[in-house]
Amino acid sequence: MKITTQGLLFDMDGVLISSIGSVVRSWRIWTKEYGIPGWETYEVPHGKRAIDIIRELRPDFDEAGVLAALRWIEDIEIVDTADLKVLPGARELLESLPPERWSIVTSATRRLLLGRLEAAGLPIPARIIAADDVVNGKPHPEPYMTGAKLLGFDPADCIVFEDAPAGVGAGLAAGSRVIGVLGTHTAEELSAATWIVPSLEGVVARNTADGLEIEFDAL
Length: 219
Hints:
The protein is of the alpha/beta class and 219 residues long. It has seven helices and eleven strands. The strands form three sheets. A six-stranded parallel β-sheet has the order 6-5-2-7-8-9, with helices on one face. A three-stranded antiparallel β-sheet has the order 1-11-10, with no helix packed on it. It has a two-stranded antiparallel ribbon with strand order 3-4. The model has no long low-confidence stretch (mean pLDDT 96).
């Protein structure tokens, strides 16, 4: 496949880096502390903001309680980087891109996003949309609509890279074309995506007079 676009919008976890071990360990510590039944086997919903998960798990919390709980899960996850890894092709692709042509749009908080990128040694874009920057998290289109606006482009002129159904839905609802990246979910679960790739390895970006040309082998 060869497609042209103006900007690229990347989810972080599951697309650029894998922090699934940290996520599972951290949320099980959190759910145990906050008295969530079944904490021993708790599986965090991938692609959702922590603040939304906390509100679902503890609807009895007032806003101060939610923010305190959010701060604690951030603290746990930031410290736990033992098995964090950069996913295949991510570093090469990001380092090939003009800084004004890409952004990260993530359900992680800005503090956690910056901590993970620093731990991974990946480029940190000048333009970031984190959980703190939107009212509505994925699968709502607001994150990707805001990300495209931050780059100065229409969402229809951007390509979204996502690994989770919630993120795929958010990108499509924003009006973008979406490349689903396998890893945390199956091809069947990502079937709504415009295209699917096994990883970012083999995804090549080239500058053109009008923007970017993206080449990849779609499944």
